[in-house]
């Protein structure tokens, strides 16, 4: 490898030419600025050298050239009708031959003519700033070349004062999709070239701030903040909220309220130099690793984190401030307290929001070379000194830009680059420039360039082993865990218990925040989200780009709702029978004065009393025991339960008062209501081709239920198949990581049902069946036993017994019955877990109550369709047509899992995008005795043993009745 003497600048390992040294980024100042965003002229060329630089000069007129169009800056040209986006996870979409790039190097020439405002000040200088350009840019102003740069998600500035004229300035930017820098930017996301962040012209008056650094530590032993602001040139700092006026370079020590993610106290300040006045905000906090534990302001931190890539389904990595704020607000509302900016520095305005609303940030450098894993890491830039200047440039640009954010508590060198001297050089430089923050890099615990021991996707067992290990150690975090691809992730609760049990296990960051599906429309205009392979890429990684806790449009997924519950900062436990509740404050800093505790007392899911309990100011880490009120008197009988909800006592900057933070349900003793059957059992009656049993009609030859009262029923039979989730399918590079392949191999999606006998006896109809796939001698011997007690209001009872034959060594996807109802029965009420979906290892957020929904709204629209929508712990359900007519199912011995949809599991399995799912004339209902867990095997550990559904002898039962009037009471919908 290496540069040949005539290597073009875009294939040069050096970071570029002509830019100014990096410095702190700030959005506000009294110096003038001109934002150059908007419509720019644009020409796309298939190669880097297709055109000379004449477009940069005054004489060029793109308006008359048919090769020129317009694009919006900031933006990616591939999302504006020019070329196409491409997705790969680790593979470079070009031959690996660093630092060379392919001849096919889409190149976008951008041109914009601008005037200076009439009152633009004279004197001083002017800086042209690019906040983000992917992946390499060469820049001209008024025909003069300014230089070129690489480092896509980092700012680059040029001094341009001498070149500006009042009117008709020509700014020309040539952007190459591929450059030497692309080898350093192999993050798992779309390849999206373009000027994707703001371009601005900044006036720099004489004596303006070249750069400034805010040191604002907090001494938790005496509650003092220690402030020192350095500036070039020097000036004065005022902090009115602290009554402070001081020279830059001087140190002030004053009592302050500290900044934490839970209590993000900021003090407004102003830096004034001879030429500029810059407002900024100070947060006092100190982070340190002490005795192997990461602490902020003296207290152990527990990260309840997410990895966040910048993404918008229409604009890619161009994010408006509203979207950034929405991310932070959604995170706060879901109890998330930390973000890793995977795997590059975000738009700096995002960090302002983290300061303001309170999130701990691991700020990660724009660096990943994962694709070298496919060539045994030969030529890895982080282990080749020729690249070290580029790596140091990236480290500097991140640290200098973001150094004044209190939310940034850890610098991360990058992601998945293996190891090498370049990383060591970066760590050494960062340590010397900013000793106040620890450094992160994911690797083994002895890795010298990281102050943390960080791993990704470690299993629960490995985390436990790390937690138990004796002797000196670094703080341990999971910088990535719980792969949120499709349905899942499972196993979050079990991780959280480990983080709480072991001091050195300081939490983790779920992979990842956002599905990166791109909004597209079918020919009929139906919207859907596209993923890898949808744009004709020759190598791609499919829907692996859709692995977030929020859907592409930022609708929270069930995974986010689950995560919120698992990481709730208050744990409510207790004994509903004894009337006590224990409130454990799991915050790291805050007491509980910002919350109030609401209770309700429910019988069979209906509230019969509600109120508020006074919540003592339990300090962080403490707990208190409270007495519940006496249960409200009621003449209702049934299952009684306390529901406790810790809610915000007042409005905050991220949620209104009343917002739910934590909750629990405690069973309470109450007289149970028996659904006594009145009759004594009657025999089935044969009538030609039909068998009748009370209200039920069966096919005499097959034993199939065909009608219950007025309700036609079809296809009721045992079912073990589910459309495999991404986590069932597992990771393509880890053979055997999910059971999906084994399920298909075995043929669980094509089971054959043979009826061996339809027997009637004095009390029941017994249908004996053998269910098995072709080419196998494994089978499930199944008996459906139908009975009816004979009373007019008695339901039809079904007992299913299952006996496996042969050696089943893979788990079953599910075990239950499915049945078909007419499409009109598309309204569902149920008493059980809700409102959203749940599976055995994703059920923490399932609230027992009475719920109502249309079938359509019970679907979770995963970007790649897959099993979804099960409701847990269902006691009864009614599927009705809106007038009250329909089918009611009551649980027998055990609660059941309820799923209803307008297509079969086979159709769900075959679908690749949401428009493939077309409603038919049937509602397909699953009543499951058991479900296999979800796990996280799409990029991590599979289902824990306790959530595995092994094939074994089973017995389960339901009762069924036809409804011809409104059922058992009005359903209640709660948030
Ligand atoms: C990690 C990687 C992430 C992402 C994730 C899987 O190995 O750091 O960028 O690829 O796996 O989605």
Automatic annotation (TrEMBL):
First-level EC class: hydrolase
UniProt keyword terms in alphabetical order: Glycosidase, Hydrolase
The keyword Lipid metabolism appears for this protein: no
EC number: 3.2.1.23
Pfam assignment, any one: Bgal_small_N
Keyword set includes Transmembrane: no
InterPro entries according to UniProt: B-gal_small/dom_5, Bact_Beta-galactosidase, Beta-gal/glucu_dom_sf, Gal_mutarotase_sf_dom, Galactose-bd-like_sf, GH, GH-type_carb-bd, Glyco_hydro_2
Reactions catalysed according to its record: Hydrolysis of terminal non-reducing beta-D-galactose residues in beta-D-galactosides
Highest taxon in the source lineage: Bacteria
Domain Beta galactosidase small chain/: 692-961
PANTHER family recorded: BETA-GALACTOSIDASE (PTHR46323:SF2)
Protein family per UniProt: Belongs to the glycosyl hydrolase 2 family.
Protein name as it appears in the record: Beta-galactosidase
């Amino acid at each position: 490898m290496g540069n040949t003497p005539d290597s073009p600048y875009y294939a040069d390992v050096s970071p570029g030419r002509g830019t100014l040294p990096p410095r702190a980024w700030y959005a506000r100042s009294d110096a003038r600025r001109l934002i150059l965003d908007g419509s720019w002229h644009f020409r796309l060329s298939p190669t880097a050298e297709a055109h000379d630089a004449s477009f940069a000069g005054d004489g060029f007129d793109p308006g008359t050239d048919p090769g020129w169009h317009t694009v919006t800056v900031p933006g990616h040209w591939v999302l504006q009708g020019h070329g196409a986006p491409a997705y790969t996870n680790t593979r470079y979409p070009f031959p690996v031959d660093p630092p060379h790039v392919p001849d096919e190097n889409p190149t976008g020439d951008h041109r914009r003519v601008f005037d200076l405002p009439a009152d633009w000040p004279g004197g001083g200088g002017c800086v042209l700033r690019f906040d983000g350009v992917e992946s390499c840019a060469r820049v001209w102003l008024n025909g003069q070349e300014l230089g070129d740069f690489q480092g896509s998600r980092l700012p680059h500035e040029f001094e341009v004062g001498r070149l500006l004229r009042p009117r008709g300035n020509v700014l020309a930017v040539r952007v190459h999709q591929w450059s030497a820098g692309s080898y350093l930017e192999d993050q798992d996301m779309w390849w999206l070239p373009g000027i994707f962040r703001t371009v601005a012209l900044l006036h720099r008056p004489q004596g303006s701030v070249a750069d400034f650094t805010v040191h604002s530590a907090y001494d938790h032993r005496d509650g003092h903040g220690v402030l020192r602001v350095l500036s070039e040139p020097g000036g004065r700092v005022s902090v009115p909220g602290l009554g402070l006026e001081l020279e830059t370079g001087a140190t002030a020590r004053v009592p302050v309220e500290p900044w934490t993610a839970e209590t993000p106290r900021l003090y407004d300040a102003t830096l004034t130099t001879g030429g500029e006045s810059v407002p900024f905000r100070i947060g006092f906090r100190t982070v340190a690793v002490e005795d192997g534990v990461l602490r902020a302001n003296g207290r152990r931190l527990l990260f309840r984190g997410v990895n966040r890539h910048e993404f918008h389904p229409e604009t890619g990595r161009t994010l408006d401030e509203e979207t950034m704020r929405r991310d932070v607000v959604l995170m706060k509302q879901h109890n998330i307290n930390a973000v890793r900016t995977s795997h590059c520095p975000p738009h700096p305005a995002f960090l302002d929001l983290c300061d303001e609303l309170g999130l701990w940030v691991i700020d990660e450098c724009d660096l990943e070379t994962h694709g070298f894993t496919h060539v045994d890491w030969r030529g890895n830039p982080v282990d080749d000194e020729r690249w070290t200047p580029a790596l140091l440039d990236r480290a500097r640009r991140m640290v200098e830009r973001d150094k004044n954010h209190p939310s940034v508590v850890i610098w991360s060198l990058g992601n998945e680059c293996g190891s090498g001297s370049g990383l060591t050089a970066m760590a050494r430089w960062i340590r010397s420039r900013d000793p106040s923050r620890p450094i992160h890099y994911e690797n083994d615990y002895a890795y010298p360039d990281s102050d943390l021991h960080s791993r990704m996707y470690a299993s629960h067992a490995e985390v436990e082993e790390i937690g138990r290990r004796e002797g000196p150690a670094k703080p341990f975090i999971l910088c990535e865990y719980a792969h949120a691809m499709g349905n899942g992730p499972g196993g979050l609760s079990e991780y959280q218990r480990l983080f709480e049990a072991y001091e050195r296990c300081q939490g983790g960051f779920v992979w990842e925040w956002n599905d990166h599906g791109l909004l597209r429309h079918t020919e009929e205009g139906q919207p859907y989200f596209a993923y890898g392979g949808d744009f004709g890429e020759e190598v791609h990684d499919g829907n692996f780009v859709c692995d977030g806790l929020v859907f592409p449009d930022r609708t929270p997924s069930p995974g986010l709702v689950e995560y919120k519950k698992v990481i709730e900062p208050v744990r409510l436990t207790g004994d509903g029978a004894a009337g006590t509740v224990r409130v454990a404050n799991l915050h790291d800093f805050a007491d509980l004065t910002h919350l109030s505790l609401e209770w309700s007392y429910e019988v069979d899911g209906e509230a019969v009393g509600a109120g508020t309990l006074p919540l003592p100011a339990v300090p962080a880490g403490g707990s208190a025991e409270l007495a519940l009120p006496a249960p409200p008197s009621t003449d209702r009988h049934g299952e009684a339960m306390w529901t406790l909800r810790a809610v915000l006592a007042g409005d905050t900057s991220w949620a209104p008062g009343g917002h739910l933070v934590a909750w629990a349900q405690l069973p309470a003793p109450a007289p149970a209501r028996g659904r006594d059957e009145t009759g004594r059992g009657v025999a089935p009656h044969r009538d030609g081709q039909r068998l009748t049993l009370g209200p039920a009609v069966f096919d005499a030859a097959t034993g199939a239920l065909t009608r219950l009262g007025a309700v036609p029923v079809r296809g009721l039979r045992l079912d073990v198949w589910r459309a495999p989730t991404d986590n069932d399918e597992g990771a393509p590079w880890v053979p055997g990581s999910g059971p999906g392949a084994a399920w298909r191999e075995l043929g669980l999606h094509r089971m054959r049902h043979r009826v061996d006998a339809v027997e009637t006896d004095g009390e029941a109809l017994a249908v004996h069946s053998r269910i098995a796939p072709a080419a196998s001698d494994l089978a499930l011997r199944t008996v459906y036993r139908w009975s009816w007690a004979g009373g007019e209001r008695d339901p039809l009872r079904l007992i299913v017994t299952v006996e496996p034959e042969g050696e089943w060594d893979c788990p079953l996807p599910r075990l239950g019955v499915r049945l078909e109802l007419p499409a009109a029965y598309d309204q569902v009420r149920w008493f059980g877990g809700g409102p959203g979906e749940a599976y055995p290892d994703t059920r923490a957020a399932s609230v027992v109550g009475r719920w109502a929904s249309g079938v359509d709204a019970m679907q979770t629209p995963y970007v790649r369709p897959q099993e979804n929508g099960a409701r847990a712990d269902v006691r009864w359900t009614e599927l009705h047509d809106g007038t009250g007519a329909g089918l009611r199912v009551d649980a027998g011995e055990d609660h059941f899992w309820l799923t209803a949809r307008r297509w079969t599991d086979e159709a769900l399995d075959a679908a690749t995008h949401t428009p493939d799912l077309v409603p038919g004339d049937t509602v397909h209902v699953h009543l499951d005795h058991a479900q296999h867990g979800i796990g996280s095997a799409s990029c991590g550990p599979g289902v824990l043993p306790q959530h595995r559904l092994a094939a074994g002898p089973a017995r389960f039962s339901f009762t069924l009745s036809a409804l011809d009037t409104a059922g058992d009471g009005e359903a209640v919908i709660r948030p």
